[in-house]
Amino acid sequence: MITLALSKGRIFDETLPLLAAAGIAVDASIGASRKLILPTGDPDLRLIIVRASDVPTYVQYGAADLGVAGKDVLLEHSGEGLYQPVDLGIARCRMSVAVPAGFRYAEAVRPGARLRIATKYVQVAREHFAAKGVHVDLIKLYGSMELAPLVGLADAIVDLVSTGGTLRANNLVEVEEIMQISSRLIVNQASLKTKSARLEPLVAAIGRAAGSAR
Ligand code: ATP
Ligand code: MG
C-alpha cells in the first residue's frame, strides 16, 4: 500500500487534477467527508488528510510514503529523511514583508537597526533579515498575522500573499517580496528504496502531469 499525505483546501483541490492526469481517480466529493483516510481508484494507493504544516512530519517518519507540501512549510521543517523530486507548481503565492500604510520601511531596514517581526515563518524571516544586517525580535504566530502590526505587537509581518486582498483590507502594504512559493511533491527516502517499483512510476507520472499542467 502507498500512502499520500495531503492537506484539505487548495492543496487537495489542486492535487486531484494532477492525480487524475496520472491515472488515479479520486472522487472529489470525498474531500467534503470527515474521513481522514480516503481510498482512490487505485486499490494500492490511499490518501491521508493532515494539517498542511504536518505533511513533512508524516512523510519524514514514513507514516506516509509521499505528500504535497508548500515550500513555505518545507523551509520551516528540517527536511530530514525527505526527498523533494518535483515542484508541482500548484498553490502558488509569494512570501513577503508587509507593514502598516505609512510605516517608513526603507528607513527601518538599515543595517544595525532593530525591528519587531510577527510571523509563522520564523526561520525564513530570521535568515532574510540577518542577510541585511538588521536585528529582529521574532514573534511566532500561528495565524491572522495581519493583525499584529495594527495592535502594536510588531512593526512588520512576514506572510504569504497571493492577491493582496487581505493586506489591503487591513491597511497593510507589501514592501518586499522574499521569495516565490509553490507546492512540492515530497517522498520518504526509505520508501523510495523499499517501494521503488511502485513509487518511481507514480512520482514520474505526477511529475509529467505537473509539467504539462504548466
Ligand atoms: P491553516 O489554514 O489550516 O492554518 P495553512 O495556512 O498552512 O493552514 P492552507 O491555507 O491550506 O494551510 O495553505 C496550504 C499551503 O498553500 C501553504 O503552505 C502555502 O504553500 C499555500 N498557500 C497559502 N496561502 C496561499 C494563498 N493565499 N494563495 C496560494 N497559496 C497559498
Ligand atoms: Mg491558511
Quickly describe the structure.
With 214 residues, the chain is α/β, with parallel strands linked by helices.
Assigned CATH superfamily of the largest domain:
Periplasmic binding protein-like II
Low-confidence stretches: none
- pLDDT average, as an integer? 96
Give the strand tally: 9
Total number of domains: 2
The arrangement of helices and strands along the chain is: EHEEHEHEHEHEEHEHH
The major pleated sheet works out as: 9 strands, mixed
CATH architecture of the largest domain: 3-Layer(aba) Sandwich
Bound molecules: adenosine-5'-triphosphate, magnesium ion
Separation of the first and last Cα atoms: 30 Å
Main-sheet strand order equals 2-3-1-4-9-5-8-6-7
Q: Provide the helix percentage.
A: 25-40%
Provide the structure class: alpha/beta
For the record, the CATH class of the largest domain is Alpha Beta
Oligomer: single chain
